[in-house]
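From the methods appendix. Each design record in this collection lists the tokenized structure first, followed by the designed amino acid sequence. Records were kept in a plain field format so they could be parsed without special tools. The example shown here is representative of the layout used throughout.

RECORD:
FOLD TOKENS (470 positions):
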């Protein structure tokens, strides 16, 4: 795979300050497919300086002109769709079809939405005898995870650019090649030098340096709750804006009267997509006691359609998990589920292939709310099915974790589902199989985060307000 031996800073690929490299591994066969520089505080400092220098000019650029450049960026990404999808398949292990449709398709839709929003957004509002100016926050330090290597980047860069901010991105060390392709696309789209900068590297070195840099005005982080807490503390101490998109343990609540077969099949697909590595994955399925065994057998049958295999094979629907550490961790959770008394109805902790970080699609029944697998984020293809006695019990279970990112409710009618959804402590709820919407605010209640991404709410995160009184 193509890899740049440098950082994209100030509109050009520049040699890294240090000599350390990060090897990129294909999780499907454990081969090394490339290497990128491991950035240091020095690289981060150079990138932040470039972003600061570019800020006044970019902030003063007309919103319609910025929006047009986001549209141009979207078009470059679209033209390079196959190359990006192949890179995501190679470094993440995503089945190629899913890589094209979701890993590239979703960010294209997000970029389009900001090309439109950026041009039409009301950056000035009248309020009584005041004019409120919505101004860009400044230099953004963006830190992203590997699970959606392009989407997580675009979900920060597109609204930041639309708002008039400049950025430094520190992508996940597991998926830097997609981030480098993104930087190439930014360049090709003609976005001015210094507006977007890329520093590859590890979290504790490059990520930490970026979060702590005094030239950064807003830290936008997506990743684990553990790291998010540290970043929040660092940003808080410096009175810096912070946005945190963190983990989840979302509930899929199937109420009596719902289309059980459809609800279970959709729910299983939601967990197995991306090998369970979606922060909003519906990993807890809640079913009424009377329909419980039926739902369990439907789910066990549904996962049979997700055999693991070579992600470049069009027949494969379940790729590996990202790396050796996650491979151990996810299978450790499965072992823990068995140990704590849950009933394994599909899959298990054994690795299904000798090479590659594969995990068998796994379903647990008889999961109780206090079990580890019902409380902690597993981030793998593992579904837990819990039984509830009545609606109040279902609500208690659904709300009974520290997280609150996604969720779903299935009922006989929308009114019943919406009434339940209103009582859920979570940032998003899909009603009777409602689909992903690029304009809908995405983000967490409780420890799932602070702030929102996507749509106009996502744009607002990158703005600060000034009022003029007349
Ligand atoms: P992670 O370890 O928190 O990493 C996320 C990013 O932060 C990576 O770029 C990472 O660099 C960097 N990082 C790590 N330690 C850091 C530090 N001390 N200071 C600054 N940056 C640091 O998360 P992950 O294991 O890669 O991703 C999985 C987790 O992310 C899951 O918990 C998942 O739920 C969550 N997630 C949430 C969302 C959401 O939208 N809410 C989306 C995706 C993922 P390295 O790559 O070098 O570790
Ligand atoms: Mg990590």
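DESIGN:
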């Amino acid at each position: 795979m193509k890899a740049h031996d440098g950082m994209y800073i100030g509109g050009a690929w520049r040699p890294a300050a240090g000599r350390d490299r990060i090897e990129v591994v294909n999780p499907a066969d454990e081969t090394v497919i490339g290497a990128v520089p491991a950035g240091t505080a020095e690289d981060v400092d150079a990138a932040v300086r470039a972003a600061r220098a570019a800020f006044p000019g970019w902030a003063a650029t007309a919103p319609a002109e910025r929006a047009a450049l986001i549209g141009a960026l979207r078009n470059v990404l679209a033209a390079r769709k196959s190359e990006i999808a192949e890179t995501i398949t190679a470094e993440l292990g995503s089945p190629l079809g899913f890589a094209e449709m979701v890993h590239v398709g979703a960010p294209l839709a997000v970029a389009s939405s900001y090309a439109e929003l950026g041009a039409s957004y009301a950056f000035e509002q009248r309020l009584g005898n005041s004019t409120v100016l919505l101004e860009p926050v400044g230099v953004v330090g963006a830190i992203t995870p590997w699970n959606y290597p392009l989407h997580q980047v675009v979900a920060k860069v597109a609204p930041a650019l639309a708002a008039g901010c400049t950025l430094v991105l520190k992508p996940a060390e597991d998926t830097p090649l997609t981030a480098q392709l993104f930087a190439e696309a930014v360049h090709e789209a003609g976005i001015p030098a210094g507006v977007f900068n890329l520093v590859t590297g590890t979290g504790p070195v490059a990520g930490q340096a970026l979060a702590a840099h005094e030239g950064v005005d807003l830290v936008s982080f997506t990743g684990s709750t553990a790291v998010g807490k540290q970043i929040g503390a660092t940003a808080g101490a410096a009175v810096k804006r912070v946005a945190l998109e963190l983990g989840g343990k979302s509930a899929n609540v199937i109420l009596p009267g719902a289309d059980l077969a459809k609800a279970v099949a959709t729910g299983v697909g939601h967990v197995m997509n991306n090998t369970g590595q979606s922060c909003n994955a519906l990993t807890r399925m809640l079913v009424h006691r009377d329909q419980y065994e039926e739902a369990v057998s439907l789910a066990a049958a549904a996962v049979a359609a997700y055999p693991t295999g070579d992600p470049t094979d069009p027949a494969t629907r379940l790729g590996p998990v990202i790396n050796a550490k996650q491979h151990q961790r996810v299978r450790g959770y499965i072992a823990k589920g068995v140990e704590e008394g849950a009933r394994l109805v599909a899959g298990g902790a054994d690795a299904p292939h000798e090479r590659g970080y594969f995990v068998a699609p796994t379903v647990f029944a008889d999961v109780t709310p206090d079990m580890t697998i019902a409380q902690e984020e597993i981030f793998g293809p593992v579904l837990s099915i819990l039984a509830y006695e009545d609606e109040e019990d279902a609500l208690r279970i659904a709300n009974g974790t520290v997280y609150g990112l996604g969720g779903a409710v299935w009922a006989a009618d929308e009114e019943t589902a919406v009434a339940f959804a209103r009582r859920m402590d979570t940032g998003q709820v899909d009603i009777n199989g409602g689909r992903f919407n690029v304009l809908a605010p995405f983000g967490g209640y409780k420890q799932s985060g602070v702030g929102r991404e996507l749509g106009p709410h996502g744009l607002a995160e990158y703005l600060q307000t000034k009022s003029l009184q007349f």
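APPENDIX NOTE: Residues 96-120 form the longest helix (25 residues).
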